């Protein structure tokens, strides 16, 4: 091939399930050739990777709160997608809440798309919202290209996105099953949380006790039961409690169409490491103990947990109440969009996993979950979304080097392995100055699943 735009050659190119010496040819933003490294592929631009670099497919993060419009002071499409690109993430799916209006109607979706257009440094798609008022109208949002529907089983924390009760959850599943869509669920039981509430506490142990494992277990049992009855596809977001893993494993063995994700903070931080007043660690559901984290890793390794996504949920520093240290009142959310790959890789490699396994969890499987077409793999026909990654280089997390809007992070000062040296979107480097990301839509009525 002589009419290529780009060829990248390297000793460690991740194609399939292994790193091999390969040359990757790109034309018009698409991978059109993968050949042995010594092949005679030529192009207008040829990039030879260093011996310490690996070429990976761009990550797909299906759980990001961008918050624009309405709460743009918390985050925005420009800053969030620059952070994504700096972390090797080339596609994000934006959550339907924390923005105003919430993405629960077609009109609200259009408002969000208008806000995002021209600002995105990576590709961006959108989830719709399943709230009481949107039931019966979810098909309209589906037809407009949302990738599925998010719901809460307890107070979401923002009044414009109310929760579903058990009956409404089942109604949403029945409606979504009619067009083979996907319902993604924040699964904590409202009654259990209400009974354990601690509105104000500076002690992490007390905050953790206010969001017990049992709340996740009960809510997930409710989701499983409804998915079994309706035969709808359901997905549990940000699983923190390993106590729910046996029920999820049994349901899947029974053929229930349910998948589950977890997040870097549940895998790389333990409650024992969190001091009192350190509200930068607050998220809901909470970070649990070291034994729990070990069990989550085992569930990932067994395939019961399908994927790892960020749940990037930023806010202004004032809402984190960093000075007061009040876990009960502080906003819950961890900003990790830029750090997810090195966080997970640093621990995964110590557990004996290779880059192929990490990319499967953080790119291939999230893309398959939401049927994000042309993403999640380095193969002929896929979008040339690529990451040059130095897996052995170490760095110390410096909040001032983070691109999301507010440099609040629980990882400040942490030493990590793996540096993203360059990110390509459709074959062109992401510079952070010229937004080239596109707004993507779900184009198929058939979700492939994982």
Entry keywords:
six-stranded parallel sheet; globular; alpha/beta; four-stranded mixed sheet; 450 residues; single chain; disordered C terminus
Topology:
Blueprint: E1 4-15, E2 18-27, E3 30-36, E4 43-48, E5 54-57, E6 59-64, H1 77-86, E7 89-94, H2 106-116, E8 123-126, E9 128-129, H3 138-143, E10 149-152, H4 166-177, E11 182-186, H5 190-195, H6 204-209, H7 213-230, E12 233-236, H8 245-253, E13 258-262, H9 264-268, H10 290-302, E14 307-308, H11 340-350, H12 355-370, E15 386-396, E16 415-425, E17 428-429
Parallel strand pairs: 1-4, 6-7, 7-8, 9-10, 10-11, 11-12, 12-13, 13-14
Antiparallel strand pairs: 1-2, 2-3, 5-15, 15-16, 16-17
Helix pairs in contact: 4-7
Principal-axis shape equals globular
Give the amount of beta strand, in percent. Answer: 15-25%
- In the predicted model, the low-confidence regions spanning at least 5 consecutive residues are 445-450
Please state the structural category. alpha/beta
Strand neighbour order, sheet with most strands? 9-10-11-12-13-14
Q: Report the radius of gyration as a whole number of Å.
A: 21 Å
Biggest beta-sheet profile: 6 strands, parallel
How much helical structure, as a percent, in the residues?
Answer: 25-40%
Number of helices: 12
What is the total tally of β strands?
17
């Amino acid at each position: 091939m002589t009419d290529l735009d780009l060829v990248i050659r390297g000793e460690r190119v991740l194609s399939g399930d292994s790193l091999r010496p390969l040359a990757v040819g790109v034309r018009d933003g698409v991978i059109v050739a993968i050949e042995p490294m010594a092949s005679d592929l030529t192009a207008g631009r040829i990039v030879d990777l260093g011996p310490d670099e690996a070429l990976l497919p761009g990550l797909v993060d299906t759980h990001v709160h961008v918050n624009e419009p309405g709460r743009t002071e918390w985050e925005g499409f420009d800053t969030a997608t620059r952070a994504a690109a700096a972390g090797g993430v080339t596609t994000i799916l934006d959550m339907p809440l924390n923005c105003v209006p919430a993405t629960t109607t077609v009109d609200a979706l259009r408002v969000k798309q208008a806000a995002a257009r021209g600002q995105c440094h990576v590709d961006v798609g959108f989830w719709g919202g399943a709230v009481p008022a949107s039931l019966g109208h979810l098909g309209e949002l589906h037809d407009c290209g949302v990738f599925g529907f998010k719901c809460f089983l307890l107070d979401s924390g923002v009044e414009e996105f109310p929760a579903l009760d058990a009956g409404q959850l089942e109604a949403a599943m029945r409606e979504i099953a009619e067009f083979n869509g996907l319902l993604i669920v924040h699964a904590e039981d409202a009654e259990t949380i209400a009974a354990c509430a601690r509105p104000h506490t500076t002690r992490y142990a007390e905050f953790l006790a206010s969001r017990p494992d049992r709340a996740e277990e009960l809510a997930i049992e409710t989701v499983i039961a409804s998915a079994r009855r309706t035969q709808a596809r359901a997905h549990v977001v940000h699983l923190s409690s390993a106590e729910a893993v046996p029920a999820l494993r049994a349901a899947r063995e029974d053929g229930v169409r349910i998948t589950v994700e977890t997040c870097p903070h549940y895998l790389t931080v333990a409650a024992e490491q969190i001091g009192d007043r350190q509200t930068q660690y607050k998220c809901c559901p909470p970070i649990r103990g070291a034994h729990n984290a070990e069990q989550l890793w085992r569930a990932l390794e067994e395939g019961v947990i399908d994927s790892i996504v960020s749940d990037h949920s930023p806010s202004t520093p004032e809402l984190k109440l960093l000075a007061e240290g009040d876990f009960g009142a502080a906003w819950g959310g961890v900003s990790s969009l830029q750090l997810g790959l090195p966080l997970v890789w640093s621990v995964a490699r110590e557990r004996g996993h290779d880059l192929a396994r990490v990319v499967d969890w953080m790119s291939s499987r999230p893309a398959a979950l939401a049927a994000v077409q042309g993403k999640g793999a380095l193969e002929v026909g896929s979008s040339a979304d690529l990451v040059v990654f130095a897996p052995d280089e170490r760095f110390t997390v410096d909040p001032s080097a983070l691109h999301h809007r507010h440099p609040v992070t629980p990882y400040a000062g942490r030493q990590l392995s793996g540096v993203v040296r360059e990110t390509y979107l459709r074959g062109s480097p992401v510079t952070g100055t010229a937004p080239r990301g596109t707004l993507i839509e779900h184009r198929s009525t058939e979700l492939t699943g994982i």
